[in-house]
Amino acid sequence: MRAGKAAPRAKPRSSLRLHAAIVAVMAGLAASTVAADTLAQPKDNTLEREAANYIRYREDVAAIEAMPFTNAEVTREAHRRLAAHDPEKIASGWVAYAALVASDQPEFAKSLEKEISKKPNRRKGELGGVDGLMSHAAQDPDYLRNLPGADKAVRAVLAMTVQDGARITELGEAFKTQAYAMQKTSWGKKKISPSQKRISEAATFGASRGAPPAPHFAYASNDGVLAPSLASANEEWAADWGEGAGQGKMTEKNAEVIVDRILILAARYSTDSLNPKIVKAYATNTKSERCLSMAKLTLDQCIAATRTPYEEAFCLGEHGLKDVATCTGWVAGAGAS
To answer: In the beta sheet, which residues pair with residue 225?
Structure first.
């Protein structure tokens, strides 16, 4: 053998095992870090995507508010936006958004934390954790509403409902007022395109928009309970988007049914136990949907009879805005019908 550099010595097996163990620990720490970072992300964002349908209506209201009544395009743009909404999506979107408002209330979240921390009681045949919470809610429709903090969650929903309605109604009244003022302008009385063409344009505009995007929340999580932190998204997602016009009150029995659905969705959202089937089953409000369908039909009929921008303004104020506020506001005793 020729003299030369000695071959490297093999590492002892114990060193290899130690090295492997260190790698495994580091990998575990990395995985734990990722899990911690994503802990506050819901497994399913169906509720947010459903709520986005209602928030898009809010966004359109805000966009219309910002348009000055200086030419005929203001009523054309308002018509395209307001007529583009599907009644079923507004109704279900409102329920979904109300559930997010409820789940964002700290006192209700604290109560849910306490409930899911309970252990199963085999002797009594009671489940524990999230399963126990949902089992109680399934057996007793009033169960969630009677939890500590649930009253504040309900009040937050009712306040949001009344305040949203106030802002939407105020814009509706502004449109009706402008309808009279526009009669004194040349552009307000000028003939516009045939009504059926305008109705078709609005339908095409709605179809071309696609589904609204899901929001980006700074989620908070505490002891297995998730909160969306609504104020962390853009202003149209804020619970105080409305005009601060009171707190609202449930004045009919059917309102309690809707509120119970909202609380079930909120509890499932907070405990990250939602899926699309549950959202579809509970994010429903038949009375609002029927009311909104009638409002849309009436708006189309009203627009069909218009020939000028000032006539359009009246139709939009009454049926595209005020009627919608009534159709969602009944749950909180606003414009009940």
So the answer is: 222
Residues with Cβ within 8 Å of 114's Cβ and at least 6 positions away in sequence, in order, are none
Least Cα distance to 92 among 43, 61, 46, 143 occurs for 46
In the numeric block, the tokens 């009311």 are attached to 291
What is the reported pLDDT for 121?
A: 78
244: left (phi over 0), alpha (psi -120 to 50) or beta: left
State phi, psi for 192 to the nearest 5 degrees: -115, 180
CA distance 173 to 78: 14
Domain extents for the chain? 62-332
Distances (CA, A) of 12 to 23, 26, 337: 17, 22, 83
Residue type for position 208: S
**Half-sphere exposure for 56 (CA within 13 Å, toward CB):** 25
- Residue 162 CB neighbour total at 10 angstroms: 24
In this structure, are residues 329 and 161 in contact, taking their beta carbons and an 8 Å threshold? Answer: yes
Phi first, then psi: what are they for 187, rounded to 5°?
A: -70, -30
Whole-angstrom Cα distance, residue 59 to residue 285? 21
Q: What is the pLDDT of residues 161-194, one digit of tens each?
A: 999 999 999 999 999 999 999 999 999 999 999 9
The larger pLDDT score, comparing residue 337 to residue 110, is at: 110
